[in-house]
Amino acid sequence: MKYYAAIDIGTTNIKCAIFKEENGELSLCDKLEHECGLIHPSALEVEQDALLWWDTICKMLKTFSAHYEITAVGISSQGITIVPVDKNNEPLHNAISWLDKRHSNGRLAAINRISKRRFRGITARQSHDDYGIAKISWLLYNKPEIVENTHMYLMPMDFIIAKLCGNWVTDHSMAAGTAAYSIKNKRWSKTILNTFRVPTNKLPTIQISGTEAGHITTSASKQTGLKEGTIVAIGAQDQKCGALGVGFKKGVAALSMGTAFALSIKLDEFVQTQSGFIPIFAGILGEGYQWEACIATGGEALQWIGRLFDMSSETMSDLVADYTADEHSPYFFPHLLGCYHPRMYPNACGGFYNLFLATDKVSMIYAVMEGVAFSLNQNIVLAKAAGEQIDDIYAYGGGSRSDSWLQLLADVSGIRIHALVVDDASCIGAAMLAAMACGVSNVYHENKFRRVFEPDFSKHAILQQRFKAFNKIEELTFGNVKLRSDFKRQNIP
């Protein structure tokens, strides 16, 4: 019997869970959670205190190390966020969050030096400001004194791994979040880095998730209570850990329903739209690829309207349980942070359409849930057009507690939705990677479903008409960009 510590560095909180492993099976023993808030220097700027992450993790590990003999540590992490550090791994600036929207003239100049088509071909990303390379570019052109002393540009997982074992390493999923990663070659792209004038030696070494990053140092042992020499595993970006934790596979997609909604689809071969609308990641275990379509304000959209109406998520879910949309029902576009997947409307905003004097709170709440479901379904339509089969979706996260939302997702997509009992799928995935780093190849977690939502095909037919109207209104409002079904396929090298 072995114990593994799983750390999940989220956008606004950090979790640490202890899992017991017997004969390859993981079971949850204990869990702690602590809020780590966001810093807003201006309306467009969003930062975090990287040392607060470290202090919080140290306290959690110290609590658990007094009760469990921990064999290894695995990490799940928010992606894209960048923190510059010196040679001693001390932050030189607050971490610039993935939510940050500041612009850099240097980034714009760099984009002019590389065509959009070539950028997409290398990174399988759109060239916009949300990726790590743009944040590094902002530092280059706005904080030259910091850049001069920067030894390494790290992401949250990389920073914590370096604190624990002293090595600067990352995995393929975190590297892809920089948009400086060659998706086909599975390494840092010299073309992108040269374009943005970022030295390759200032980025961590890329390793496969579930391998050893190193061992707990003497200093980290004193701060965390973990034994010196304890294995530190290469983890992965949180959505990838979550997908691993719920057991996604061909035909079964994983849906994380948190602040953002993220749909992960497993691919055996490289599949990309010509416009690069659905980001592609290399498989974290060294094989295949996966899509990740993200609705940036999926869960946050419901929280937003809940704040306006002073209602809890549970109350809103109950209110819309028996609601049926008609021709007078409003539409909602959940682009509160822009729209990127599958359509590229970076300057889009959220909005309602089809409001009347008789429009009430219930219909507006329903519209928010439906709008998120429609945006998600746009990605599902593209996946099916590419020949990918999706028979089931495994849902987890706070939004998966809403039966009304899950049933609506099933009715819109025509796909069975399985609601997992566990919310902390990312921690499960991180624990699995920790076990793999210790040589446990058959590690698994028995997932249980609290309910399965079968699609109501009579409602599906009606909702398809609203889905078509939603797409048309969106095109006319934010730009006449059609959903693309022109995919390019090629065998994995």
Give an overview of the whole structure.
With 493 residues, this protein is an alpha/beta fold. The protein has 2 domains: 2-234, ATPase, nucleotide binding domain (Nucleotidyltransferase, domain 5, 2-Layer Sandwich), CATH 3.30.420; 240-490, Nucleotidyltransferase, domain 5 (2-Layer Sandwich). The chain is 36% helix and 24% strand. The strands form 8 sheets. Strands 1, 2, 3, 5, 13, 14 and 15 form a 7-stranded mixed β-sheet that branches. Helix 10 crosses helix 15 and helix 13 (361-385) packs across helix 14.
Poorly predicted spans: 481-493
CATH fold-level assignment of the largest domain: Nucleotidyltransferase, domain 5
What is the CATH architecture descriptor of the largest domain? Answer: 2-Layer Sandwich
| Largest sheet data | 7 strands, mixed
* Total count of domains: 2
* Arithmetic mean of pLDDT: 89
Provide the CATH top-level class of the largest domain.
Alpha Beta
Number of helices: 16
Bulk shape: globular
In CATH, what is the homologous superfamily of the largest domain?
ATPase, nucleotide binding domain
